[in-house]
Amino acid sequence: MGHYTHHIQDFVGKSKGGRLNCLYSMKNTHLSHPEDSILTGDLSVLDWFLSNGKVSAKIDGAPAIVWGTNPATGKFFVGTKSVFNKKLIKINETHSDIDRNHSGNVANILHNCFDCLPNFYGIVQGDFIGFGGDDTFCPNTITYIFDEIITQDIIVAPHTFYATSTGELKDAFVVNDGDVFPTFDDTELCKFVKPDCWQIDEDFDEIVAFARQMSTLCEFITDKQSRQVQQQLNSVIRAGLVIDELTLDALAFANQIDVNLLYLWSLVKSIKDDMLFLMRNNGPKAYINDKQCQGEGYVKSNEFGMFKLVNREVFSHANFNSGLMSTRGVA
After folding, report:
1. Least packed by Cβ within 10 Å: which of 84, 191, 210, 255?
2. In this predicted model, what pLDDT tens digit does every residue of 132-159 receive, in sequence order?
3. How far apart are CA 283 and CA 277, in angstroms?
4. 49-77 burial code (b ≥16 CB/10 A, e <16)
5. DSSP characters over 185-212
6. DSSP-derived secondary structure letter, 152
7. Is residue 56 helix, strand or coil?
8. What is the Cα–Cα distance from 139 to 130, expressed in whole angstroms?
9. Alpha-carbon distance 317 to 314, whole Å?
10. CA nearest to 327, candidates 106, 137, 32, 138
């Protein structure tokens, strides 16, 4: 993996005044659906729709695996997302660390990742797909079928690169720069799943302009109200109900908010769904309950942000009801 080490070192070394001098970076937070981001009046997603950027496939693995070089010690480590905890940080630089910090299936997976993941300079998060010896894997909600039997010991889908200006993993943030993200080549022990992704050309200018005009008629809500509305929308999706005009009217009335805002939410969601329909990748075939699907979705990032493109009625509904969602990435 040494062919990109110096590139990453140069990038991380650009820290000035406690901040990275990079193309763009983000806090280490959960990715948002484009439509949810507009509820508080942040319209940057409308520019995001119209700008080119890096597109990657979301792979539905579990648990989340974080690995690389611990900036505080210079040693190789593996862990779950608990390596980023502000308290009760669980960074594993030895097998003994894994035994102390984890148990059960997670510990077994981390022991294998510690032995099989290659060393490199940097911090990367990925999803664990499974152990080799088969062509079919169902780590969470989606079943993946590869074209051939995987001979490597472990299968991991890397997706996010991090940096820190303090030398502590708890202060890590997402690096949103496609030129920096390393190329992961398969090794004898590890199969990396990183499909090539592309979008079929389509002009979104007119519909985005209409959404921008519609936003001038909306009364936006606070962060607290937004979280409540998102929870209610997720409950509707979890129940398998259609989010139609009647549903939006009822949600607006229940929360005493402007119904035009929810109509805007619905319009932005439709733009997202159209963009998702135009996405393609060359990864393994994906199925939910024996029905072929697009996979979990995609992540698109550019100077206006990083958002996920997910069919909420298909994947999110299945994921909410899989019984496995609460275990994803849990130490």
Report:
1. 210
2. 999 999 999 999 999 999 999 999 999 9
3. 16
4. beeebebbbbbbbbbbbbbbbbbeeeebb
5. ---SSEEE----EEE-----HHHHHHHH
6. S
7. strand
8. 7
9. 6
10. 106
Per-residue 3-state assignment (H helix, E strand, C coil) for 318-331: HHHCCCCHHHCCCC
The token duo for 329 is: 């990435």
Determine the Cα–Cα distance for residues 222 and 167; give it in Å rounded to an integer: 34
d(CA 326, CA 320): 9
| C-alpha dist (Å) from residue 239 to 232, 265, 311, 317, 319 | 11, 19, 15, 8, 12
Q: Where are the domains of the chain?
A: 2-27+60-192, 34-55+199-307
CA gap 329, 331 in Å, rounded = 6
Cβ count within 10 A of residue 1: 16
Q: Cα–Cα distance between 214 and 258 in angstroms, integer?
A: 13
Structure tokens at 262: 């929810």
Residue 104 CB-density burial (10 A; 0-12 exposed, 13-18 middle, 19+ buried): exposed
Pick from 75, 65, 38, 214: nearest CA to 130: 65
Instruction: Read off the tokens for 267.
Output: 């319009």
Rounded CA-CA distance 204/55 in Å is 17
| pLDDT tens profile 65-105 | 999 999 999 999 999 999 999 999 999 999 999 999 999 99
Q: How confident is the model at residue 120 (pLDDT cuts 50, 70, 90)?
A: confident
**Cα 216 off chain centre by:** 31
Task: Give the amino acid at 21.
Answer: N
- Residue 100: CB partners within 8 Å, gap ≥ 6? none
- The whole-angstrom separation of Cα 299 and Cα 246 is 30
How many Cα neighbours within 13 Å face the side chain of 66?
28
pLDDT at res. 14: 40
